């Protein structure tokens, strides 16, 4: 085990949330753009949960969510009983003072929901699927942001 730790240290590996890690360099320093849709609101909320409140914002995160509803299970009577939500998020992290792009990219994921219950149950399942997808996309964006060192990119 000691050999593997030494090997990781030799390759420049450092924990994200360790001393000097990118987690501490970005925590509380990322302001999100204003949400425009319920999906955006969930996405921004998850970013704030993971990156901390933007009390000393140095960076601004802008994004665009694209979510498509795709029928998955169709009965012989042509009734759809399951839908998939395919989503992607394009993001751009910029330095607020300089306006320079620090990181940009795109992530994607999917989730699904069933429509076999009542109308109210179906609506609740759809809303829950949207929230899950927005949170999944936000988690992927945070993972990508924590993989970079903003000081070395600018």
Summary keywords:
5 helices, elongated, 39% helix, alpha+beta, 154 residues
Which helices and strands, and how do they pair?
Layout lengths: L1 H9 L11 H5 L3 E3 L5 H14 L7 E16 L5 E16 L5 E14 L4 H28 L3 H4 L1
Parallel strand pairs: 1-2
Antiparallel strand pairs: 2-3, 3-4
Helix pairs in contact: 3-4
Care to describe what's here?
The chain has helices at residues 2-10, 22-26, 38-51, 119-146, 150-153, and strands at residues 30-32, 59-74, 80-95, 101-114. With 154 residues, it is of the alpha+beta class. Strands 1-2-3-4 form a four-stranded mixed beta sheet, with helices on one face.
What's this entry about, in short?
The protein has 154 residues and is of the alpha+beta class. It has helices spanning 2-10, 22-26, 38-51, 119-146, 150-153, and strands at 30-32, 59-74, 80-95, 101-114. α3 (38-51) packs across α4 (119-146).
Mean pLDDT: 87
Helices and strands, in N-to-C order?
Answer: HHEHEEEHH
Distance between termini? 36 Å
Beta-strand segment tally: 4
Overall geometry: elongated
The largest β sheet comes out as: 4 strands, mixed
Structural class: alpha+beta
Query: What is the helix fraction of residues, given as a range?
Result: 25-40%
Strand content: 25-35%
Put simply, the count of helices is 5
Using only C-alpha atoms, the radius of gyration works out to 19 Å
Strand order of the largest sheet: 1-2-3-4
Unreliable runs, pLDDT <50, ≥5 residues?
none
